[in-house]
Design brief:
InterPro entries: DExx_box_DNA_helicase_dom_sf, DNA_helicase_UvrD-like_C, DNA_helicase_UvrD/REP, P-loop_NTPase, UvrD-like_ATP-bd. GO terms for molecular function: 3'-5' DNA helicase activity; ATP binding; ATP hydrolysis activity; DNA binding. It catalyses: Couples ATP hydrolysis with the unwinding of duplex DNA by translocating in the 3'-5' direction; ATP + H2O = ADP + phosphate + H(+). By secondary structure, the protein is an alpha/beta fold. The protein has four domains: 184 residues, 3-Layer(aba) Sandwich (Rossmann fold), CATH 3.40.50; 79 residues; 200 residues, 3-Layer(aba) Sandwich (Rossmann fold); 136 residues, PCRA, domain 4, CATH 1.10.486. The chain is built from 30 helices and 19 strands. The strands form five sheets. Strands 13-14-12-15-16-11-19 form a seven-stranded parallel β-sheet, with helices on one face. Strands 3-2-6-7-1-8 form a six-stranded parallel β-sheet, sandwiched between helices. A two-stranded parallel ribbon has the order 4-5. Helix 12 links the parallel strand 6 and strand 7. Helix 3 packs across helix 4, helix 4 runs antiparallel to helix 5 and helix 6 runs antiparallel to helix 24. It is globular and about 90 Å long. The structure holds adenosine-5'-triphosphate. The site of adenosine-5'-triphosphate has 18 residues, from helix 3 and strand 9.
């Protein structure tokens, strides 16, 4: 051990023996198999800090997390731990941890740096899922598949099949096993995917999957030297990685030296993105000698009764999970299963309990309502607003999905890469009078060398003529670059007056763009900004807000997927009924139901002190025509089996009226007698 570590013997004392073993493990491959709330994030942060304390160069540590937020938190934690040991100079070292981020964001940076060596344009732009579906649609149209006698799969389905095939590294026929209704189109889909790949390459765009695919190829070529750039590779939430990600790791570190992966097979919830739980189960045997496994089974988060109920849920999983978690925190009340008549009552119940807890000193930020699908929280959002309880919602409609933000991003992307047709198509049509046909023609001009100049003299429809010169001036400025985020200010100055002409709610949209400019200032360049935001869009207002909002207290509303890795003192799980969880979209297959069970387990294990599982007797059917009023009567979720319910306390809410109010026989107001009385 180095002197620094010896002089501070207390620095790993707060860890338990298994956690400490994981932190102190040497150079061979390591798998930390950690149950919910067992301190895996904490252990990983200590391991990184320990490596730095021991002299590792932080710039040669590759740390992959599930979200940008998780990476930022991890950097903060590492910095704090290292500072305890090394004092102020740790600050600079932790800041050197520049290769911490999501797989996709790191892939994008590495590919840009090595672009010219692997035949990529270093100015490539990245398409989000929607842009990718649009490009797929364009190819589908150009191949004549949109005019087939029999209906050809829609653009989103085509993209899903493509993505499944490449991420699972499976032949198309195998990927079609998950889309049996499309199997008859195998030959056409193959032609379509070839055209899609050619279009992406011609336009200098990469989609999400490409970032991993190209990276896997790059990592597999030792002479390109990627593996030699890093001494340590650490990956969090390994249960949610897919085969391509496993291939990247294998390429970077064929012998497993310096590799640490951390995860929990019982929390694997992303198979719909081709995540492969076998990655973590098979990890030790990939290496020879096999990786060391450290198992963390002490749960520090939840009280014993909450953990007992969560353990009972996962015990019914089809595959057995090896770790039965043991609670460190004894005492506490059993989780509540609350029966409510409907979602309005559910919302009222949550609000009452939240306010009650706040009176008792639990901050709103320590309380969260979790739900399977973003739309499930709508009645609660109304009730919270009515009662003036501030909240921030994670998951669901993203800030970047709004039309005006997409417009701005498209124009910035086109300035970055004038060959990007999907972005160009959107951006050019912002000029009033430019329709689809003109946009196509102008894009062809723009894609040729000297394109920006060619735009100046381009023929445009008469209706667009007045605005055209302004647009070209803006675009030429953006191409040349005013600096960052000055580009965005220039763009806003052009776009916002136009927004005011089109939209009644322009002020709100302009406020969004001001927020966007605030975020932009946090990135060193336009390319980094576009890349990072496209890959990991801010999930909620809270993600975007600067310090003022962060000082406020607000409750958290989150989809269960977005709640991964987090914890709160009091947790409400909404709509614990069949059809919501498990979602009726998943009940078609056993694997689907098993994944929903793990999702329910993730939700329950977020709670530290209090857990409320809400079971409305009827719930509103979502995805129906606007203002539709279909309700269904709901059955308690199948995951709340008798064995699980035995570990819960059951209540009805609102409570039945007191005995005496109910007891009086006969009608409370005898209107019939009044009617008779009129004639007496
Ligand atoms: N050795 C320990 N002593 C005391 N508290 C601990 C210890 N290890 C972890 N904790 C606490 O337990 C809680 C859970 O830790 P952490 O978030 O790291 O768990 P996790 O395994 O990443 O959870 P999950 O996978 O469920 O998201 C945190 O509040 C953390 O501070």
């Amino acid at each position: 051990m180095s002197e620094a570590a010896l002089s501070t013997p207390g620095y790993l004392d707060r860890l338990n023996p298994e956690q400490r073993a994981a932190v102190l493990h040497g150079d061979g491959p390591l798998l930390v198999l950690a149950g919910a709330g067992s301190g895996k994030t904490m252990t990983l942060a200590h391991r990184v800090a320990h490596l730095i304390v021991e002299g590792a160069d932080p710039r040669r540590i590759l740390l992959m997390t599930f979200s940008r937020r998780a990476a930022a938190e991890m950097r903060g934690r590492v910095g704090r731990i290292a500072r305890e040991v090394m004092g102020e100079k740790a600050e600079a070292l932790a800041e050197g941890l520049t290769w911490a981020g999501t797989f996709h964001a790191i892939g994008a940076r590495l590919l840009r740096e090595q672009a010219t060596e692997i035949g990529l344009d270093p100015d490539f732009t990245i398409h989000d899922r929607e842009d990718s579906a649009d490009l797929m649609n364009l190819c589908r149209h150009e191949l004549g598949f949109s005019r087939m006698a029999k209906r050809f799969p829609a653009k989103g389905t085509c993209l899903a099949i493509y993505s499944r095939a490449v991420n699972a590294r499976a032949p198309l026929a195998a990927a079609l096993g998950d889309f049996p209704w499309c199997a008859e189109w195998e030959a056409e889909l193959k032609a379509l995917f070839a055209a899609y790949v050619a279009a992406k390459q011609a336009q200098g765009v990469l989609d999400y999957d490409d970032l991993l695919l190209y990276w896997a190829e790059l990592a597999a070529e030792p002479e390109l030297g990627l593996g030699a750039r890093f001494d340590h590779v650490l990956i969090d939430e390994y249960q949610d990685t897919n085969r391509v990600q496993a291939a990247i790791l294998a390429g970077l570190r064929p012998d497993g030296r310096g590799v640490t992966v951390v995860g929990d097979d019982a929390q694997s919830i992303y198979s719909f993105r081709a995540a492969e739980v076998r990655n973590i189960l098979d990890f030790p045997a990939v290496f020879s000698p096999p990786a060391r496994i450290v198992t963390l089974t002490r749960n520090y988060r939840s009280t014993a009764p909450i953990l007992a109920a969560a353990n009972a849920v996962i015990a019914e999983a089809r595959e057995g999970y090896a770790k039965e978690l043991v609670a460190e925190r004894q005492g506490g009340l059993p989780p509540l299963m609350i029966r409510v008549p409907d979602e309005a009552a559910q919302a009222a119940y949550v609000c009452e309990r939240v306010l009650e807890a706040r009176e008792a000193g639990v901050a709103l930020k320590g309380q969260a309502a979790l739900f399977r699908t973003a739309s499930h929280s709508a009645p609660l959002e109304v009730e919270l607003t009515r009662r003036n309880i501030p909240f921030v919602k994670f998951g669901g409609l993203k800030f970047l999905d709004t039309a005006h933000v997409k417009d701005v991003m498209a124009l910035l992307r086109l300035a970055e890469n004038p060959r990007d047709r999907v972005s160009g198509f959107r951006a050019l049509r912002l000029v009033p009078g430019i329709g689809p046909a003109s946009a196509e023609r102008l894009l062809a001009l723009l894609a040729a060398p000297g394109g920006t100049e060619a735009l100046r003299g381009a023929r445009v429809p008469a209706r667009a003529a007045a605005e055209w010169a302004d647009f070209v001036a803006l675009f030429a400025g953006l191409r040349a670059g005013h600096g960052w985020p000055a580009d965005l200010s220039a763009l806003r100055a052009w776009y916002e007056p136009r927004l005011e002409l089109i939209h009644e709610d322009a002020p709100a949209r302009i406020a969004d763009l001001a927020t966007l400019e605030g975020i932009a200032a946090g990135y060193p360049s336009r390319a980094r900004f576009l890349t990072e935001l496209t890959l990991d869009p801010p999930a909620a207002g809270g993600d975007l807000a600067g310090p003022p909002l962060l000082d406020d207290d607000y409750m958290i509303l989150s989809t269960i997927h977005s709640a991964k890795g987090q914890e709160w003192k009091q947790v409400f799980v909404l709509n614990c009924v069949d059809g919501c969880i498990p979602s009726d979209l998943a009940t078609g297959s056993r694997a689907g139901v098993e994944e929903e069970r793990r999702l329910f387990y993730v939700a329950m294990t977020r709670a530290k002190d209090a857990l409320h599982l809400l079971v409305p007797a009827r719930f509103h059917v979502h995805n129906q025509a606007a203002r539709g009023d279909r309700h269904v009567h709901a059955a308690r979720s199948r995951f709340l089996s008798d064995a699980v319910v035995a570990r819960l306390a059951e209540r009805s809410w609102p409570p039945p009226p007191p005995e005496e109010a109910r007891a009086a026989p006969g009608p409370r107001r005898d209107l019939a007698a009044r009617m008779r009385g009129m004639w007496e």
